[in-house]
Amino acid sequence: MTTSEDYVDAGEAIDQGNLSFKIPGGDVAAPVTAGVNYERILNAREEPQNWLTYYGAYNGQRYSPLDQITTENVKRMVPAWVFQAGTTGLIAGASTYSFEAAPIVVDGIMFVTGWDGWIWALDAKTGVEIWRYKHAVPFDVSLCCGNVNRGCAVAQGKVFLVTANARLLALDATTGKMVWVKTFGDVRAGESATVAPLIVKNMVIVGSSGGEFGVRGHLDAFDLETGEHQWRCYMVPKPGEPGSETWPADGEAWARGGANCWVTGTFDAETNLLYVGTGNPAPDFDGEVREGDNLYTDSIVAVDADSGQIRWHYQCTPHDLWDYDSIAECILFEMDGRKLLAHFDKNGYMYVLDRTDGTLIQATPFVDRITWGAVTRDGRVTPKLYPEKEGEPVHFYPGPAGAKEWTHASYSPKTGLFYVPVQDTGATATRRRREFKESIPYWGAGVQVDADDMTGSVSAFDGTGEEKWRWRNELPMCASTLATGGDLVFAGEATGEFNALDARTGELLWQFQCGSGHHSSPTTYTVEGRQYIAVPVGWGGWAEGFLPGMLGAGHGSALFVFALPESA
Predict the structure, then answer these.
(1) What is the pLDDT of residues 190-237, one digit of tens each?
(2) Which residues carry out catalysis?
(3) H or E segment and range at residue 544
(4) What is the DSSP string of 296-354?
(5) Cβ distance 517 to 407 under 8 Å?
(6) Backbone angles phi, psi at 28, to 5 degrees
């Protein structure tokens, strides 16, 4: 029999982030973010040497006018440096990790987030680590689709990121030390966070994750100086609010309705609107417990940046029964004198809307195989195949990861083309009704994504939805594209290749094997006049959802940075 005298005090737990020599405050980054404010981000493309915000600019185009690397010389591009993030210890959640970030660069300093609460500050010229910070995340946090993080934001001397346990952090960008931390989700209910924050005016905008656990999605704004909460916009209306008639009048289906905003929105200062995509309804596949169109799930939602009020919406997949989140980026562009928005939805259709009022201009397919239903050019939706009967399997295209997952398309105003990473993969769903229990997955079906008979491409479309070229790949394309002024499109493959394509023809011009699959967002910048292309490489996350045949492939955890050889 043991007594209290048999136990020895184990002492204080050691912060894992301090076991690397690069502790917060140990080294100091140049104060480059002190002058980053709303005006600079608003005019971000006027300083192409930097990548100041998640998409490079508020318009979501993922385009840089940098043109030192061109179609003529890209074949000479070589690795300039590699940063090994590495993995240490256990990670939170019963899931795998993935390196999904978009590196931010300000005047020679790079900020890049990782999974499980990590962020690093690096010398953008050499890759030398300046500081690192790790936020402690509970091991039992509920995560549906991998322990991931898509990036950070910078402004007024601080760097902002979210953590898997739904915290928004503000760190001193020179030292990595904590300035403030706020909670904006209930992890006990299954809420989490993966989104890259967006700075708009004096606010930090973030959205929640957790739709697979039956939570009510929301978008939040915080004061970037103090962390004070400014507003919250719920994406599922409660009884009596506009849109509530699209949910059952009795019960609490609306309260667990999903519609999470887990991908960064875009912003137009002239309309003062944030354009945000929302996630699936819950349960994902069992529609009988949530009859109606289920607003504002699977929608493009325009939110007033000052008040947090919804100004208009467009629903891509009413009463979703296929897990077709509409979280994809909303790319802002102009055509024929109109202010437009392009959105490549999981359901396989490209939507072009008037971004001033949400009027649909056209809907056109961007993937070959679409069997779940049909959407006419004027937006009429006809469902065809879905898990209707308990225990009866139904196969459909695209699968629940979509014809394009969260990974982003890009747009070149120079060519007038959108460059889309396409996934042509099907899945089988078998409806399995499940009683709602807080923090327990609430899918409503068993799902098996096809492990063969799949393909992918980088496809180029103009603003009318006409396909101009297609670079074909044997496997789905699971990473964001990047377009540059050098008439290049960069795109990574699941098997590790990082490619440069001719933006006008789709011809493969250059390729480098990075040793692990791509599921991130490359960015570009210059330091001392030399252009660099940066891409995080680390396969994983929800691989069983978009490419289950590579679920066992090596994760990787490296940031590769490429450039032309330095002049002799």
Answers:
(1) 999 999 999 999 999 999 999 999 999 999 999 999 999 999 999 999
(2) 323
(3) helix 543-546
(4) TTTEEEEEETTT--EEEEEESSTT-SS-----S--EEEEETTEEEEEEE-TTSEEEEEE
(5) no
(6) -120, 130
